[in-house]
Amino acid sequence: MPNGEGSCRGLVLRSTDLGDHDKLLTVLTAERGKLTICAKGAHSLKSKYMPVSQQFIYGDYTFREKGEGRWLKDGSIVESFFAVRAELTRLAAASYLMAVAEVLALEEEPDPELLRLSLNSLHLLTADKYPVAQIKAVFELAAVSGAGFAPDLVFCSDCGKKTPYPAAFDLAGGVVYCADCLKKREQAAQFGEGREEYTALTSLTPGVTDALRHILSGAGNPFAFRLPEEELRQLSGICERYLLFQLDISFKTLDFYHEVTSS
Ligand SMILES: [Zn+2]
């Protein structure tokens, strides 16, 4: 366990009240993964720690470190994504993405990809270039895939043949089926076999398939694609359900996102 002084550049995923005066920061860093740092007195408007102790701040932090405890010594803002707070949908999406990053990030495990994805997503949420649903979908699929849960969208899971456009995507298994194999599965299900996995099956349009593969390809900007509204809605549902199936947890921040976007 490190003792003495430490420093990091990182993104505040969460800032939790610790008693009446202090805050506990959950910071995503490139070199050390997720770190928690106690910011003494950060509640006070007069505290020098207050500005750097907010969610969505990307900053440089120095801290005293003893065992697993860290206490903030100094901090400066590199970039603030506070602008996401200007609009409720964007704020809800950003809060949810931070919660997902917190679940996926591990302590003392470098994860520069997750940090980059989180920063890029926040950056785009403060701009008007892509729909919020698209930013959220790209983050969900890229983040969960980066954590080792990448689906195979190329080869049919049953017959092993390459499928240019799969007939169905199994969100639980992370695999696809060609039209022939899907038909066989549907027939089998009528006789009571494999009914369980049926709820995780979703159909894919060519447009949605291309978008999913683009996000997974790792080539170029994963956010850069256009889909008609209806297909974007499908993509959004698929990426969200895929993440939830793979991680098998629920997010209050996601419920809130749905509350504010369904009205
Ligand atoms: Zn097949």
Descriptive key words:
OB fold (Dihydrolipoamide Acetyltransferase, E2P); 7 helices; 4-stranded mixed β-sheet; alpha+beta; 2 domains; 263 residues; 5-stranded antiparallel β-sheet; 25% strand; binds zinc ion; 9 strands; de novo design (two linked rop proteins)
Topology:
Blueprint: E1 3-18, E2 22-29, E3 33-39, E4 57-66, E5 69-80, H1 88-104, H2 112-125, H3 132-149, E6 152-156, E7 168-170, E8 175-177, H4 179-190, E9 201-203, H5 206-217, H6 229-247, H7 252-261
Parallel strand pairs: 6-8
Antiparallel strand pairs: 1-2, 1-4, 2-3, 4-5, 7-8, 7-9
Helix pairs in contact: 1-2, 1-3, 1-7, 2-3, 3-6, 5-6
The site of zinc ion has 8 residues, from helix 4.
CATH first level of the largest domain: which class?
Mainly Alpha
Query: How many structural domains does the protein architecture include?
Result: 2
Spatial strand arrangement across the major sheet: 3-2-1-4-5
Task: Based on Cα principal axes, name the global outline.
Answer: elongated
Please state the average pLDDT score.
94
* Main pleated-sheet profile: 5 strands, antiparallel
State the helix count. Answer: 7
How does the helix and strand content classify structurally?
alpha+beta
